[in-house]
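Tip: read the tokens left to right.
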């Protein structure tokens, strides 16, 4: 009786191991099918260089997929306006746009300041991270 129970356990463990051996190559193959992330370029600038405190200013730009990179035009990609504060980029506003599409974000600042801004695209499951050049905005 005891030998039969051990035999059943052995067969069960062997069957589980066989299933794992079959599943591991499938999982590895699907992970490599995704391929490298597409490269993007972010272009952005403020509609005006000088605004009054509390006045809305539009940040307009485009998210370009680099030619030759994989492209999935079906989804929206995040774009984040950031300001340089004490040597650190701080998020100000978030928007969305399609790859190879444009975006327009409205912002306002309540205090007078000279700001250094950029637009950042964080890494997603399809595309690598990228950011625009730095542009200035004076709030009076």
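Filled-in amino acids:
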């Amino acid at each position: 009786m005891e030998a039969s129970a051990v035999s059943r356990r052995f067969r069960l463990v062997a069957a589980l191991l066989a299933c794992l051996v079959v599943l591991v190559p499938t999982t590895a193959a699907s992970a490599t099918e995704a391929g490298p992330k597409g490269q993007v370029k972010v272009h952005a600038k403020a509609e005006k260089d000088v605004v009054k405190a509390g006045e809305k200013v539009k940040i307009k730009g485009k998210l370009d997929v680099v030619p030759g990179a994989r492209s999935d035009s079906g989804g929206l990609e995040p774009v984040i306006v950031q300001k340089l504060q004490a040597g650190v980029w701080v998020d100000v506003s978030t928007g969305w746009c399609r790859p190879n599409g444009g975006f327009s974000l409205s912002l306002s600042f309540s205090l007078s300041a000279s700001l250094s801004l950029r637009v950042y695209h964080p890494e997603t499951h399809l595309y690598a991270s990228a950011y625009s050049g730095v542009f200035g905005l004076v709030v009076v």
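Residues 26-32 have pLDDT under 50 and may be disordered. Residues 55 and 122 are 28 Å apart (CA to CA).
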